[in-house]
Amino acid sequence: MASLLTPGSPSTPVNTESPVWDDLDRAMGQMFIMGFEGTEVTPQIKILIEKHHLGTILLTAKNLKSAEQTTKLILDLQTIAHDAGHPVPLAIGLDQENGGVNSLFDETYIQQFPSAMGVAATGSTEMAYDIAKATGQELAAVGINWIMGPCLDVLTNVKNQPLGVRSMGDDPEEVSKFAVAFMKGYKDAGLATCGKHFPSYGNLEFLSSSLDVPVITDSLEQLSLSALVPFRNAISHGLNGMMVGGCAMSSAGVNVMHACLSEQVVDKLLRNGLGFQGVVMSECLEMEALSQNIGVGGGTVMAVNAGCDLVLLCRLFSVQQEAIKYLKLGCEDGAISENRIRKSLKRVLDLKATCTNWEKALNPRGISSLSTLRPSHMKLSADAYNASITVVRDRERLLPLSHTLDSDEEILLLTPLVKPLPASALSKGSVPASVMGSTTPWGKCVSLMSGENVFRELGRSLARKRKGRVLHTSYTAHGVRPSHEKLINRSSAIIIVTADANRNLYQHGFTKHAAMICKSQAMQGAERQEKPMVVVSVSSPYDFALDTSIGTYICTYDFTETALQTLVEVLIGDLAPTGGLPGTLSQNQSHQHTKQHWLVEAFDEGRDTTALDDLLQKIEQEGPVNQRSELFGCSSSTFLLHNGGIDEGHFVVRNSSTGSLLGFCCTYLFKSTATGVIGAILVDPDRRKLSIGHSLHSRAIRNLLHQGSVKRFQLGSKLPGVFLGIPTNNNVERKRLRRWFGSMGWNAALSRPLSSMVLKDLPTWSAPEKVSRSMKQAQVEFDLVHGQQYAECIMEHVKTSSRQGVTEVYELALADQSSCGVIRAKKPKDGTVLGTVVLCSPGASWAELLPALKDTNNITWAISSPVISPSAGEYSTLLQGLILLGIRQVKEQQADAVLLDCVDSDGEFAGLSAMGFTVLHNFEEVSCDADSMSVPA
């Protein structure tokens, strides 16, 4: 049942079975999302709300002039709905992606933040969360309750893709990471979310006719491996809505004219394949290709039957009426069932329950709230732009220009003629081009310009900052004109701005031609042999990211005035750029030191414990919500054994100013087996790809090798049992880690598969008949013993195991007889021990070293470290017998679950699965001889 609020009572639940929804017209009204023209309530939108019960409205830049006007408009719309007897408020949606794609601008109250790709360039998911939350807070203050974001598209083909910096990049995992951070920020600000554009606009092929829709030619298998990864992850983290695009699909097994009208895409792929249960919204059915080929009325019926819960119609009242009419006709003639309407109604009501109620809708916080938020949001905006701007290359060390040029030398600024930003205030005529930002107690308040105006101000700002002359002119598809050549010849340095040169090929050609002129105009007798030229991409970073002939290349990721003011600070030297290219481009970023050496310090328990706890929590929270991290339940004490039989050596990379840890590595030398173990290498998720892990690994190996007794190295530790090896639950991450450790000298091809397994619902569990029968036939006696008096015979048996950590586990168990025990399998005649296994209660002194004990949310005991004598004969029978008796002992203790902490996935897996165990985590244990591992440089 959907829990919502009735008009008069903010706490009275309403559900889809309520008599108010018996009116099918009212239910169908909740299945449309519509827009309108104008900045005030129009008669048409009033009719749609009052007569046709329209439940959701999408506002655009054409509806919005300022924060104050927006607040009033939305309140007017909600009041109309309330007075018309709507059981629940309107969902009010808006595109606010930041960068150049914002629907709401207000130079006083609404802050400008970087584009999605610009945020990814900061490398910080924390900043992504903060920006999303700030954006959401501002939208919520004016009455918006549903944001059309985040954009989940992966740029699997960067050529001629219109999305550009609206996408977070070309790496599915990185897009997923930032998308989830955006989602959390929006939700914590009180907004519902809507992912787009399913099944991906990241690789579209465009045809020439306006009646031809863009086509996805990737197969479903190709999409699943790349483009669908962020959609899948967003769904697992609770995405509220999904927009399905209007693109076509054409590949083996898929032939779809419009994705949002296809049952194969919406119902089978999105609902069944990816498990999405939220609200599905169609692309706007007013698109020319769809309306001409199918018709809006027919398209509406097809969209609903395909599985769409909301049909989007952006603008025309006549078309919106047609859609409503045909939805009713579809129900009347049986083309659409009432049950189908009820399903969509429930989903829409569930979404509204997450983001609105009448008390909230009729009492927007408005300008007063925005005034309170303004100081912190202005600082966040400045910090974000400072952290996003990226110097990809500066081969000739031209930056900063204040060190390269004298103030009396001229700079030539060449900028393309581009259209205004799609939703900018200036393009609507609401902000005069001459208006400049004023100064406030919190910093600079910058109005939003675009196109030629913002580039003109870029030149002026650069001239003011450097206190020197800057010449500025534009270039077009006509290429390098004689006037351009003359200016290039007379200037001392050139700055060329490009904006999507991959799509606007004239910009690419112009830049290459200008670079050739600069090379040919070497200044005779001067130290510089080539005229300095700086290329700045103010949109897609792909323009010249891989073209190393461009020696100095900078990316800003959007060309709002805020972005270009930050660019000026970088050019002059007032700001040291820290941004990095997103996605796979970062692998080619020449200024990124892949072998950077970090200062690695020994872990100090008094100094670093709290910081390590913070790092563990941050990494654990990065994992998908439906898959617990191996670090669940860990704390700093988990890694500190304080065991006389084990030499510990732990290392950190830390921020010496704040004390926070950027990375942590734990190592152990198990004296009983002369095995040197790397138990974990952990790096702050926001500091990956900076060689922190490389530096920690090198120090760890060096430390272990310097202890001459080590004979073998191992990745993965039984004690503490956090990582038994390379985690393999996530196949993409598994491949990445195998490659990484392979580059460190480990041979992952010689790995051993291990698992931690769990048996849940223990009170209702019963032993499989086959296992019980085998135990009755076995010529073996079993007993359970506690305490040191049994140590001699047990430890003599345990010596037959060569696995690291096993001896130490038994020593701990025998020393803690109140919470641990050992089950023995013995020959009946002479009492020879054939096998043993350890029982450990959650209250044992060393249970902290097995964090998986906390991974079931129940009272869980552990069965650990089975050791079967080589002379025992039937290995599997003895193993199952020991574990079976262990389960029975634990069951008597009123436990809910049993953990097996280290299982050979090849040899033991099938028998244990038959007993009811399921996999908790999978690993690959990697070992090598100490002689084969050299001391890292």
Secondary structure elements and pairings:
Elements: E1 4-6, E2 9-14, H1 24-29, E3 32-34, H2 43-50, E4 56-59, H3 67-83, E5 91-94, E6 96-98, E7 101-102, H4 116-121, H5 125-142, E8 146-147, H6 172-188, E9 194-198, E10 215-216, H7 220-225, H8 229-236, E11 241-244, E12 248-251, E13 254-256, H9 263-273, E14 279-282, H10 288-293, H11 296-306, E15 311-313, H12 317-332, H13 338-355, H14 358-361, H15 366-388, E16 390-394, H16 401-404, E17 411-416, E18 439-440, E19 443-444, H17 451-466, E20 470-475, H18 482-490, E21 493-498, H19 505-520, E22 533-537, E23 552-555, H20 561-572, E24 601-602, H21 605-621, E25 646-654, E26 661-670, E27 675-683, H22 692-705, E28 712-715, E29 726-727, H23 731-743, E30 752-759, H24 769-777, E31 781-785, H25 791-798, H26 806-815, E32 820-826, E33 833-840, E34 860-868, H27 875-892, E35 897-904, H28 909-914, E36 918-929
Parallel strand pairs: 3-4, 3-15, 4-5, 5-8, 9-11, 10-12, 11-14, 17-20, 17-21, 21-22, 22-23, 27-28, 34-35
Antiparallel strand pairs: 1-2, 6-7, 12-13, 16-23, 18-19, 24-25, 25-26, 26-27, 28-36, 29-36, 30-35, 30-36, 31-32, 32-33, 33-34
